Amino acid sequence: MNLLVFYGGTFDPVHEGHLSIARAAHVALRETIALVPAADPPHRPSPGASAPQRADMLDLAVAGEPGLCVDRRELARDAASYTIDTLHDLRLQHGREQPIAWLLGADSFRGLPEWKRWRELLDCCHFVVADRAGSPLDDRLAPGLADALRGRWTHRPDDLKESPAGRVLRLEQPLHPASATAIRRAIARGLSWREDVPPAVADYIQRHRLYRDGSTPDPSL
Ligand SMILES: Nc1ncnc2c1ncn2[C@@H]1O[C@H](COP(=O)(O)OP(=O)(O)OP(=O)(O)O)[C@@H](O)[C@H]1O
Ligand SMILES: O=C(O)c1ccc[n+]([C@@H]2O[C@H](COP(=O)([O-])O)[C@@H](O)[C@H]2O)c1
After folding, report:
1. Would residue 148 be called left, alpha or beta, if left means φ above 0 and alpha means ψ between -120 and 50 degrees?
2. Which of 9, 30, 34, 139 has its CA 20 to 30 A from that of 73?
3. Domain count, the chain
């Protein structure tokens, strides 16, 4: 069966690190990767760009990338963007038997026990975990997480197509150091940052004067 793959993030802004793991997942899984911008991301301060602006930047970033697309479903919900709610929405749309995977970086994955109803999430989708510098997956996972993951790890992408949910695939792609915090900080300080985002996204950031002073966005934009 085919596998639906969703990659959630704040994408404030989308950068080359995001794109490199989305491309690596597209190649490893041979599926389209849908990038899902969080409207109101839980567990972090308000983003520097509005949700529609972050989604627009994603549209620019995936243009000309055959294996990537943007899914705006979290922008349509008038509530915090909890992943469990998004997955329930996806299950309503695609049914209980459809293999579904959630792609995320190792730093997010290590924090999974802080997510809403995280144990339920492990049986609601597969996880594809991308290596990220500074976030080891081999050791020192929270004990509850390490226990919950026993028997779920796989290195075989096809395992994710053989059941609707429950496996965890480690994506061992080349590490990319980009971080949205570093990009926002560089813009605010007048340092160089354009090389870490696609040119069309860099132009958008400049045209909309984003991230210059750390102010919160106009929610109507
Ligand atoms: N360079 C990277 N390598 C691997 N994973 C990444 C990288 N950058 C982001 N991710 C992952 O992408 C997802 C979305 O990340 P997010 O939008 O928060 O970007 P970020 O660069 O971590 O942003 P911020 O610095 O604002 O926290 C997360 O699961 C995160 O772990
Ligand atoms: O559901 C949760 O409780 C939850 C907690 C933290 C993060 N998430 C999701 O994880 C993805 C990455 O989040 P972030 O903050 O690293 O951009 C994004 O889709 C978030 O909505 C989800």
Report:
1. alpha
2. 30
3. 1
Cα-Cα-Cα-Cα torsion 192, 216, 68, 200, nearest 10 degrees, comes to -40
Instruction: Note the pLDDT tens digit of each residue in 45-67.
Output: 889 999 999 999 999 999 989 99
CB of 38 closer than 6 angstroms to any ligand 2 atom: yes
220 within domain boundaries: no
Q: Is the ipTM of this complex over 0.95?
A: yes
- What are the strands, taking DSSP E only, across the chain? 4-9, 33-37, 68-70, 100-105, 126-130, 153-154, 168-171
Residue 28 lies in a domain: yes
CB-ligand 2 contact for 116 (6 Å cutoff)? yes
Flag whether 168 is in a domain: yes
Ligand 1, residue 182: give the atom nearest the CA.
25
Helices within 63-172 (DSSP H only):
83-94, 106-110, 118-122, 143-149
CATH of the domain at 40: 3.40.50.620
- The whole-number pLDDT of residue 215 equals 53
10 Å Cβ neighbour count for 194? 15
Single pTM value for the model: 0.96
Q: Relative to the CA of 36, which ligand 2 atom is closest?
A: 19
